[in-house]
Amino acid sequence: MDLSQYTLFITANLPYILLGLTVLIFIALLVFISVNIKMSKLNKRYRRMMNGMENANIERLLLSHIEEVRQAVSKVNQLDEKCRQLDAITTKTIQNIGLVRFNAFEDTGSDLSFALALLDKNKNGIVLSSIYGRNESRIYAKPVVDGQSTYHLTEEEKQALKISLEKNS
Q1: Beta strand 137-144 with 113-119: parallel, antiparallel or unpaired?
Q2: What is the pLDDT of residues 118-165, one digit of tens each?
Q3: What percent of the chain has pLDDT above 90?
Q4: What pTM, to 2 d.p., does this model score?
Q5: Calpha distance 120→117 (Å, rounded)
Q6: Are 63 and 71 in contact (CB under 8 A)?
Q7: Closest to 127 measured CA to CA, from 94, 105, 160, 102
Q8: Are 115 and 99 spatial neighbours (Cβ–Cβ below 8 Å)?
Q9: Which residues contact residue 93 at a Cβ distance below 8 angstroms, ignoring those fewer than 6 apart?
Q10: Residues in a beta bridge with 145
Q11: Which of 3-6's residues contact partners 24+ apart within 8 Å by CB, and which partners?
């Protein structure tokens, strides 16, 4: 085919060729508008993200944030270890107290005698008893292991131990 045949073909089909080119230009215009809208949204997000970051290097900014996160993780690990240590210590501290006041002798007036149970988380501790009389006062201490004492307990001491054990549950 020579050049004259191309010219005749184009001339004969000129309306169809122009219509096709118009459709292609219209499609290109729609793609351009779509890309422009997306670029505008992306630009707004970028400006919002970079708000207050005058001449900031994003890579440097991200690296500094990563370092801050590493420091925070390190601090959390330290606090976790400290919490474990404190938890181990608190199981051995007095956590449950049972107190019963009573009148040991009829001639003394008020409830000046008492039984006091002091237990840790493992139900270990002591029962203290104070017997108050007009002429003298006595204090007794009895060990408690796993909620039981190897010594004979008075009714008041048993009651104080029961109160303390109920708080432990």
Answers
A1: unpaired
A2: 999 889 999 999 998 878 889 999 999 999 999 999 999 999 999 999
A3: 57
A4: 0.55
A5: 10
A6: no
A7: 160
A8: yes
A9: 120, 121
A10: 148
A11: none
